[in-house]
Amino acid sequence: MWAQPPAAGVPSATSLKSSDVRDHYARFARWLSEQTGNSMERKRAEADLIFRRVGITFAVYGDDAGTERLIPFDVIPRIIPQAEWAMLERGLKQRVRALNMFLTDIYHEQRIVAAGIIPPEQVFMNAQYRPEMQGVDVPSNIYSHIAGIDVVRAGAGEYYVLEDNLRVPSGVSYMLENRKMMMRLFPDLFSRHRVAPVAHYPDVLLENLRTVSPRGIDDPTVVLLTPGMYNSAYFEHAFLAQQMGIELVEGRDLFVDGEYLYMRTTRGPQRVDVIYRRIDDDFLDPLVFRTDSQLGVPGLLNVYRAGNVTLANAIGTGVADDKSVYPFVPDMIRFYLQEEPVINNVPTWQCRKPAELSHVLANLKDLVVKEVHGAGGYGMLIGPAATKAEIEDFRAKVLAHPAGYIAQPTLSLSACPTYVESGIAPRHIDLRPFVLSGRDIQIVPGGLTRVALREGSLVVNSSQGGGTKDTWVLEG
Q: Where are the annotated coiled coils located (predicted)?
């Protein structure tokens, strides 16, 4: 965004020339140069205090420092010009459309496997593939109703998809709360910039969920199913349920009678038509998946198979966001849509292939290596930042189970000016827009920008010390 941070007014790590500011940041840069370091620090402290009061925290399992943490919020927004966003929106819609077609295909005709485009073992031996879903029809053939697609900007400014999150993607509450915070702290900025709104996301999400209710239901009952208050994303579950005006329920609040699902209420049982579920597949129905699960609803899969309830996202969706399937998404776009991808993948080596494994092992110090089932920034090696001992330890892990890893080059990720202890300095960022699939595919302009707060770090995950920013898409 900025090659270097601004020096005027606010203390900074380096100096800024006007040529370092991209055109769509110019107005914001002028405003920022008028601010003092003390005023910005006060605003940052105010944001932290408000977030703590509201309870915007996330749980860190096994963390000796405590179970709840505040995700650091940066007071400098990430700004995206309209033309850039239009390209991103087009590419994200294309990708999610192809991913939903892939899921429909593998649970029905399996044409892409028969065509030899994806090896059968990549699908049917995948831990996220659910044979129980084979032949099950879902409303409108939509499996991923809510997708969080992680994108990065690198090199000469080109965008790449880093990861597809199609199971229970989180983070949208931070997108909404970050915007509310910026409008509270800096209302004058929004009179200077035409920033596309995001506050209507809960309304769009609810309408999206209502459009995929079982056939014949005119006024569907929608609920949000949470694992409970000890889940790391519980704040988001409660927040979204409240914003949509729907019931937040746990498994014990629901029961199956015949081929229908009901919610216990003070007025007696009420039929449930759509579940926005924030529980992993394994815990949804103890009669089918994990028998020790106390989080799900016994018999839920029977209701689902009968077409009497919609699950968003569908059971078995995870096979499409597994990192071992990620390299094939551009081929999915070509196969199902007869189009070239608008947004490319990051170049990826699959360690299950002997030739690509040899390349990865010979270049570990220069690559990012990831577990195919890993998440949250765990189970990965960032070669340039790793010690020799860490590299050798990871080499042994890859050799022991090559199919469990992929590798990618260390991209020169774009950086955004970020307010840190030393003032304003560049920090690496990514972006997670949220793509909603229902009667139409819709994207609220923007998304969750995550920032690696440690100098030089490429890991943006909150569990690994990352923070978040408000994301502005300019209108005109």
A: none
Bridge partners of 261? Answer: 256
Residue 340 placed within a domain: no
| 298 and 351 assigned to the same domain | no
* Same domain as 357, residue 279: no
In this structure, the chain runs to a length of 476
Residue 318 contacts residue 167 (beta carbons within 8 Å): yes
- Tens place of pLDDT for every residue, the chain, 476 residues? 443 333 334 445 344 455 578 888 889 989 988 887 788 889 988 988 888 887 776 555 444 444 566 778 999 999 999 999 999 999 999 999 999 999 999 999 999 999 999 999 999 999 999 999 999 999 999 999 999 999 999 877 899 999 999 988 999 999 999 999 999 999 999 999 999 999 999 999 999 999 999 988 889 999 999 999 888 889 899 999 999 999 999 999 999 999 999 999 999 999 999 999 999 999 999 999 999 999 999 999 999 999 999 999 999 999 999 889 999 999 999 999 999 999 999 999 999 999 999 999 999 999 999 988 766 556 788 888 889 999 999 999 999 999 989 999 987 778 888 888 778 888 889 999 999 999 899 999 999 999 988 887 777 766 666 889 999 999 97
Alpha-carbon span 455 to 296, nearest angstrom: 42
| Domain boundaries, position 232 | 215-308
CATH number at residue 282: 3.40.50.11290
Residues 362, 365, 368, 373: is their CA dihedral positive or negative? positive
pTM here? 0.90
CATH code at 364?
3.30.1490.270
- Number of domain units in the chain: 2
